[in-house]
Design brief:
It is a single chain. With 120 residues, the protein is mainly β. It has a single domain (27-118), classed as Jelly Rolls, CATH 2.60.120. It has strands spanning 27-34, 37-44, 49-53, 59-65, 68-72, 75-79, 85-87, 93-97, 101-107, 117-118. It has a six-stranded antiparallel sheet, with no helix packed on it. The chain has a four-stranded antiparallel sheet with strand order 3-8-5-6, with no helix packed on it. The radius of gyration is 15 Å and the shape is globular.
């Protein structure tokens, strides 16, 4: 299939400044619903935990700022900027911020959206 110049681009601002963590827990917000994927932004203060949970879709998790310990299947992976990870759907996992951190989760939904929704 040849490439095209038809389509859409979403140019987002610096996401490391978009949210503030809540006093007692991380702040999580779905910031984009687009063709094939949703983006969820999480903002942590050092020591905050996003308790064990799962996604109904496969996800890619990456730290944009800071350091997060990501626990999955009994092991902890230290995430820092430049080290993304991929999880299959329904896999239980937990995040704990080692320092103030911004985390971006890309939910690979496969859903079709004619137009993207941006919620910043």
């Amino acid at each position: 299939m040849p490439g095209t110049h038809e389509g859409h681009v979403i140019d987002l601002p610096d996401l490391t400044c978009a949210l503030q963590p809540f006093e007692t827990k991380p702040h999580a917000k779905k910031i984009v619903e687009a063709d094939g994927a949703n983006l969820v932004l999480l903002e942590f203060s050092a020591g905050q935990v996003f308790k064990e949970h799962h996604s109904v879709h496969p996800i890619v998790v990456q730290t944009l700022k800071g350091v997060v310990d990501f626990t999955v299947q009994g092991s902890t992976i230290r995430l820092h900027p430049g080290k993304p990870i991929h999880l299959t759907a329904h896999l239980l996992h937990e995040l704990k911020a080692v320092e103030d951190s911004t985390v971006l989760v890309t939910m690979l939904t496969g859903e079709h959206h004619e137009t993207a929704t941006v919620n910043l």
